[in-house]
Amino acid sequence: MPRRHPRMALGEFSQRFTSDVVRLELSRNYLGPFAVEIALRAWTEFVHDPYRRLWDFDSKGCGISWCCADPSEARELLGFVARALPRRSARELRKRLDELDALY
């Protein structure tokens, strides 16, 4: 049985996607460890939040990305990541983003 990568707790993505994300986070200076996971979690939670229409985009919260992530910055980062990933992994991420964008 293949092992899941221990860094990502995102069960809906393939092991190839996880490995590509880890490789991308290590090679890009605008990404840190877990940056993609934090951004995806922030965007997913924002889209599923029934009070998302009341979000004040001018408020930056506490400024800590894993605590009070800005959903618009998270979505923008995920767009950059989707363009930087290899084709198969990018397709997997875009499919998930399309589902989330449809909810938004």
Encode the helix/strand succession as letters: HHHH
The total of helices stands at 4
What's the rounded overall pLDDT mean?
80
Assign an overall shape.
globular
* Radius of gyration using CA atoms only: 14 Å
Helix percent reads: 55-70%
Number of domains: 1
Q: What percentage of amino acids are in beta strands?
A: under 5%
Contiguous low-pLDDT stretches (5 residues minimum) are: none
Distance between the termini: 37 Å
Classification by helices and strands: mainly alpha
The total strand number stands at 0
**How many strands, which pairing sense, and closed or not: the largest β-sheet?**
none
What does this molecule look like?
By secondary structure, this protein is an all-alpha fold. It has one domain (15-103). Helices cover 56% and strands 0% of the residues. The protein contains 4 helices and no strands. It has helices spanning 15-27, 35-48, 71-84, 87-103. Helix 1 packs across helix 4. The longest helix has 17 residues, at 87-103.
